[in-house]
Amino acid sequence: MLVPLYEAVYERLEVGPGTRLLGLGCGSGLALVMAASRGATVTGVEPSSPERLALGRQRLLPEAWGTRARADARLVDGSPGDLAAATGAETRAQTPAYTLVTAFEPIGCLAGDSEGLGEVLAAATPLADRGAPVVLAGWGPPERCATSSVLRVATKLADPLRSAGSWRPALRDDLEEVAQRAGLRPDGSGRVACPFGYADVDSAVRGLLSTGLFDSAIAATDQVQVDKELTEALHPHLRPDGTVWMPNVFRYLIARVP
C-alpha cells in the first residue's frame, strides 16, 4: 500500500549504488527490496515481527538477485541497539556509516506511537553519517484519508480501554515534533497519495486487522464484534465490482543528523 511513498522518497533523495540505507521497522522488507533494486546497500531492523522479518530475508537472498550488491543486505531481529551490539566495535570502526535512515512505518494513528519512534531514532542516528537524511512517515489529515473513517471503529470499540495503542487522528506537526525531540533538523517534506485497495471486503478486514490498530478493540469486545463493525464501516468504500478502494494521503519528513 505504501509503495508510492517509498518511490517518492527514493527518487527525491536519489537513492542508488552509493547509498547505505538503514531501515527502521523494516517489516517484510519491501522498501529495502526497492532500495536494493536501485543498487543501494541495505540493512533493516525489525523489533516486533519475526515472521515478517523471515519473509524479508527471503526477498533479499543474494541468489534471488544474482548480483553482488544484494549480497550485502542484512536484516536484524531487534532494535538499532541490537544491530550495534551484533556488529561489534571493531567491525563498526571499519564499516562506513549509513547515508540514509528510513522509518516508513507511519505514525500519527496510534496513541503513543511517536514516543516509541523517538527512542528508536535516538539509537539509530549515531550509526549514520553527519548530515545524513532521516525520513519519517505519517498519516495525512483525516479528511484526506478515507481509511480514517474505518479506523475510528478501533477507537469506538476500545473504550474504555482507549489509551496507548488505540487510534487517534493524525496531527499536522506529528513528524516535526518527533524529529525535534530526537535532535534532528527538518529539511523538507512532502505528501504522497497511497490508496488502499482490496479484492473484496474479507480481504480488507484481514488486511486492516493485520496492522495491529484493532488489537485494543478486540481485547475490549471480541473478534466477531470487531469483524462485524469493520465490515459495516467498509461498506461506503465498496465498489460495484466487489473491490474495496480507499484513497489516502501520507506525509513524509526529511530531517538531518546533526
From TrEMBL:
<keyword id="KW-0808">Transferase</keyword>
<protein>
    <submittedName>
        <fullName>Methyltransferase type 11</fullName>
    </submittedName>
</protein>
<dbReference type="GO" id="GO:0008168">
    <property type="term" value="F:methyltransferase activity"/>
</dbReference>
<dbReference type="GO" id="GO:0032259">
    <property type="term" value="P:methylation"/>
</dbReference>
<dbReference type="InterPro" id="IPR029063">
    <property type="entry name" value="SAM-dependent_MTases_sf"/>
</dbReference>
<keyword id="KW-0489">Methyltransferase</keyword>
